[in-house]
Design a protein that fits this description.
Blueprint (H helix, E strand, L loop, with lengths): L1 E7 L19 H16 L6 E5 L2 H14 L7 E3 L7 H9 L7 E6 L3 H7 L14 E6 L12 E7 L5
Parallel strand pairs: 1-4, 2-3, 2-4
Antiparallel strand pairs: 1-5, 5-6
């Protein structure tokens, strides 16, 4: 059994129009929501084996809050440029290359691709993946390269506004 947590980056700041989109930091709400959602997952008893993030500042910063809650060192967050504004198929490509000893993975990325991706996973659909929202599925596979064609079972959905 494999478990996948898809997490949209927390709310980012638009206060400085000179900053490139890739470099935008989290805003006050994002800096509050990310640790709160990480704690929520931790308190659910979920054991995350790996954190995978877009290299964009707001996604990586969100992943850093989860790393802190789950006892990961920041250096252990795996980051991929291709997850920055990635279309749905890129998520599948990243997942298929994961080490098979990893059973629960958290991926941090962006809209619109993240919403398209989560809506491709199960019968459970969402209109828009909210900032710091978490969409989780379980898959009865032994190897991540089986993920694309395997039946995925909706596990849960959480967002800061639900708390």
């Amino acid at each position: 059994m494999k478990e996948l947590l898809i997490i949209r980056h927390a709310k980012s700041s638009w206060s400085d129009s000179v900053i490139d989109d890739f470099d935008r930091p989290l805003n006050e709400r994002g800096n509050s929501d990310a640790p709160r959602m990480a704690k929520l997952l931790f308190e659910k008893g979920i054991h995350i084996d790996a954190l995978i993030s877009s290299t964009a500042n707001r996604a990586f910063s969100t992943a850093t809050y989860f790393a802190k809650e789950f006892g990961f060192k920041k250096i252990n967050i795996r980051s991929f440029d291709k997850l920055y504004h990635a279309p749905a198929h890129v998520f599948y490509d990243v997942i298929e290359d994961l080490d098979n000893h990893l059973n629960c993975i958290a991926i941090f990325a962006h809209n619109p691709g993240i919403t398209d991706f989560v809506n491709s996973l199960s019968e459970t659909k969402i209109d828009n993946m909210p900032t710091c929202g978490i969409f989780a599925v379980k898959v009865s596979i032994k190897n991540w390269d089986e993920f694309r064609d395997a039946e995925k079972n909706f596990w849960f959905f959480e967002s800061p506004k639900m708390q």
